[in-house]
Amino acid sequence: MDEIPKTAAPPEPVAHAAIEVDHLDFFYGDHQALYDIHLQIPAHKVTAFIGPSGCGKSTLLRCFNRMNDLVPVARIGHGQVRIHGTDIYGPKVDPIELRKRVGMVFQKSNPFPKSIYENVIYGLRIQGRTNRNELDEVVERSLRQAALWDEVKDRLHESGLGLSGGQQQRLCIARAIAVEPEIILMDEPCSALDPIATSKVEELIFDLKKLYTIVIVTHNMQQAGRCSDVTAFFYLGKLIEMDRTEKIFTNPGEKQTEDYITGRFG
Amino acid sequence: MKNPNRFDRKRLRIDHFIQWFFGSNALLAIIVLALITLFLFREGAEFFPQNLQNLRNYRLAGLEYVGIMRDQIEAHTSLNRSLQDLRLRQSNALLKRQSNALLKLGKTPEQISTALVPFDAFAASFDSSVEELRGLVSEWTDAVSEIKDKAKLREDALQQRQFLLKEGKRAEADAVRVTQIDFAAELAPIRSGFPLYRKASVAFRGKIETLLLQPPPLAARELQPRFEQFQKAARAYLASFPATERQLAKWEQFAPVPWHRAVTSFLFGKEWITNSFWQDWYGVLPLLTGSVLVAAIALAIAVPLGVCAAIYVSELATPLEQQLIKPYIEFISAIPSVVIGFFGVAVLGERLRELTQWQALSWISGFPISERLNAFTAGCLLALMAVPTIFSLAEDAINSVPRAFKEASYALGATRLQTMFRILIPASLSGIVSAVLLGFGRVIGETMVVLLCAGNRIAIPDFTQGLSAVFQPVHTMTGIVAQELGEVPNGTIHYRALFMVGLLLFFLALGINWLAQGIVRRYKISAG
């Protein structure tokens, strides 16, 4: 596998693309992290990004809500990222507004050192919303959607740091959906969780796709197989293959994909 | 195979040596520190018995008795001062009218003097009304001072004898003459003079009463309320006479001085008077107030500067700015404090005074300031020295907030400012608080700057004047030790008192550090 893989042919256009990535090149300083990525992410589906470490899948994910802006040396070389048709790197786009529409859940659960209640409404607080009834409603709705309500409803005002790892991660999901984003990006959300907590989060992802478009980066093949509709395989900063999940896992078009999925490298 | 374990043994010996080397260094450091602490305690602890003896002598020699009368006269002097102040205000008021040419109410200096004649006459007779009593009291003051000197001589002799006995020179010790003092007999002439005091006091009282019945017309009508204030104070003064008399009658020469007075007179004593012909007082309160006032001023300036700089450098600055600002601020702490003090004496004090003389600032209470060197000057300079401490520690605290918090906040659509105020600062608050506490510890222990720039007046600042109290000269605990320790004979009560001041500082610094560490430790638990 020493030769640099060639870029896959663009996948077929999807009916309702939430995110369209158009021949994207991405750099950290002089180092090119993404090469000519071209893909479309369908709305109200779960899209999984798989690939070995350092293949650029997290970088691509962070392009979708411009979290890469926080890295001083990161820059886009060429190409576009469009969300519902708008170029999110266009001059009129405010990354703050963008991030309200594109939520994110991180690899390591990171609730703020505040109460569970305050964690959930943080996104609303910074938008200046103070109506108590509205906030109470949002907390209950978000925690119910994150399947956490029954576990924490009696201790909403205790610290979020007192929850277990799985609960913390679901709290982070609740926090992300409290601002009612259109898209939720998940960066290996289960990598730090035990199997039971993982299966809970996976169930949650399955339920959430009715309401949100979900993009999930994962190292876990079974997870990608279980909960995603579409899977994209990346290798060395290139998109190798993207297709319906069953097809990728049963009959991949590229040999590299097959090798990776069957565990021959990675 | 002579010695199969030879290599291992050698290895063991080296391990032992390394362990011993590091261990003994740590031990040595601890022992030295413990010895220093012990020395402080040993030298300081002797203060309390000596102070008790000091207080006992004060009573036995009759200083306390005469002191009651001296206080009475002192109160009269302060009333007298307020009269003089009133005269100054009147003549100023008249002068002002003079300058107001349109109203044509002006008066020449000669006219002013004429206008003030009745008032001056009143003030003069008020001043002289005390003469008789003053004469009496000053005579007795000399007398009790003599008794006190005798007691002191006796104590010295006793000490000398004890010292000689300890050395084993019995013959020489016996040769030291220790005179017995009959305190009751010594004081008897003064106590029997009570009727004289009474007579003088009554006459004095009568004079003031008559004076108060004929108040002089004031040259400036608007000062009437002030004069009424004076009258009220004078009447209250007269009303206190019977109480003073009762106090004198009730006073007992041989009443025991409770032991705790030795402690309370140190901790809560409002006077620090040394080398006085009358009585030495070792009350730490003026010094403690001075130290705390200067430190509070310093922190009020340094905390916003240090914390804001830390927030700026860790969150907002460009990498280039970071590279410049951080070493620069840390460089400030490398300036020797005597240089900063020198700058304060030579430049800052004078500039500050000039600034306060500026008309546009005259509305601020206490402006223009009269003293070049005062608590504020010292506070400004100490702030400069506290900024690096606060800055470095606060920056560490902010940097130690997990990056994940920041990312989560940004991902939810927070701006940089919102992330800073809602996440970073709350999460690092305990670290910032402990940075401030350690800055306080740094400032309260600083010596050179306060010695040079705080003005060194041993008195509790007059806080009734509000904010302008910060522009009064003060003396500090560190300053007094540095100033006086070199000049006091070893082992005297003054020497011990300075050690007690040092001990107090030691405990203060210990408490602050303990508090700061406790806060940091708790923060670590909550973040984990």
What does this 3D model show about the protein?
- The complex is a heterodimer of chains A (266) and B (528).
- Chain A is α/β, with parallel strands linked by helices and 266 residues long.
- The radius of gyration of chain A is 19 Å and the shape is globular.
- Chain A contains eleven helices and ten strands.
- Chain A has a single domain (17-261), classed as 3-Layer(aba) Sandwich (Rossmann fold).
- The longest helix of chain A has 14 residues, at 132-145.
- Chain B has three domains: 4-44; 62-256, no CATH class; 286-527, MetI-like fold.
- In chain B, strand 1 and strand 2 form a beta hairpin.
- Chain B is flat and about 95 Å long.
- The chains are: A alpha/beta (266), B mainly alpha (528).
- Chains A and B meet through helix 2, helix 4 and helix 7 of A and helix 17 and helix 18 of B.
Q: List how many beta strands of chain B DSSP finds.
A: 2
- Structural class call of chain A reads alpha/beta
At the fold tier of CATH, the topology name of chain A is Rossmann fold
Number of domains of chain A: 1
Brief summary of the model shown:
Chain A is of the alpha/beta class and 266 residues long. Chain A has helices spanning 57-64, 95-101, 116-120, 122-125, 132-145, 149-152, 165-178, 195-208, 221-227, 245-250, 255-261; strands spanning 17-28, 31-42, 46-50, 74-83, 86-87, 102-105, 183-187, 213-217, 230-235, 238-244.
Record keyword descriptors for this entry:
heterodimer, A: 266 residues, alpha/beta, Rossmann fold, six-stranded mixed beta sheet, four-stranded antiparallel beta sheet, globular, disordered N terminus, B: 528 residues, mainly alpha, MetI-like fold, two-stranded antiparallel sheet, 75% helix, 1% strand, flat
What's the topology here?
The complex is a heterodimer of chains A (266) and B (528).
Chain A: E1 17-28, E2 31-42, E3 46-50, H1 57-64, E4 74-83, E5 86-87, H2 95-101, E6 102-105, H3 116-120, H4 122-125, H5 132-145, H6 149-152, H7 165-178, E7 183-187, H8 195-208, E8 213-217, H9 221-227, E9 230-235, E10 238-244, H10 245-250, H11 255-261
Parallel strand pairs in A: 3-8, 3-9, 6-7, 7-8
Antiparallel strand pairs in A: 1-2, 1-4, 4-5, 9-10
Helix pairs in contact in A: 5-7, 7-8
Chain B: H1 6-45, H2 47-60, H3 63-99, H4 109-115, H5 117-128, H6 131-167, H7 170-175, H8 183-192, H9 194-213, H10 224-239, H11 241-250, H12 260-267, E1 272-273, E2 281-282, H13 285-316, H14 319-332, H15 337-356, H16 375-399, H17 403-411, H18 416-444, H19 448-453, H20 477-484, H21 493-527
Antiparallel strand pairs in B: 1-2
Helix pairs in contact in B: 1-21, 2-12, 3-5, 3-6, 3-10, 3-11, 6-8, 6-9, 9-10, 9-11, 13-16, 13-18, 14-16, 15-16, 16-18, 17-18, 18-21, 20-21
